[in-house]
Amino acid sequence: MPEVSARPAGTPTWFDLTTGRPEEVKPFYTALFGWDFEDYGPALGHYHRARVGGADVAGLVPKSPDMPGMPSAWSVYFRSDDAQADATRIRNLGGQVMVEPMQVMELGHMLVASDPTGAVFGMWQPLEFHGSALEGEHGSMTWQEVNTRDSGQALTFYTGLLGATSQPLTGVDYYYMLQHGPDDIAGILQMDEEHWPPSIPSHWMPYFAVNDVHEAVRVAADAGGTVSVPPFESPYGTIAVLSDPDNAVFSVIQLSQTP
Question: Which segments constitute the VOC domain (predicted)?
Fold first, then answer.
């Protein structure tokens, strides 16, 4: 089981879900991924941590009353060594800081920002909490990509912010890999008008690993979710795009057994 204890700065470290219907979506994710939840109480706005076999894998944030028009959505967080310095770097690179760096009790420091194309993401500077403890196992984070209307702007922004390099995915002229050394850390996908309606803004897409993508699709539909994109094959595994009962969109992937 690929357990994770620490990650270098500039690499993905955590997914969390902001939702207006926490009591409806928790049973959905328990059915789909086998998650159990711990409520951190009113001091943290009833933030929930989701776990698989005792290992932290994701978070759930109930929407507060001052978020009436905010859609339910998954967020991707990147590891930071200095949240204040990253906030300055985000602004210098053309992004916007939406939630200024703040300390979350003894757990760490966080900020929320958007890139120059409008995709929202977070940065996490850990103290006691380091992020997801599992990767690539059923119900845990395994990949992330930004779907953007301007891949050139996104490439410049994220390579500068995350200290990453980039290269086109072999044989694909609309997808780029962000890399830390030899490791792929995230993707950048150019949204086109043919496949992406103008109403869909630039956004980060989280991917969760599943043991059987067809079973995941069946369970998601039975548990009140929606199959946004049925299973399809990729060089890395079989992928489907799902929505939970509060319309938050995410992807699942049954990873290939061979590289």
Answer: 11-126, 140-255
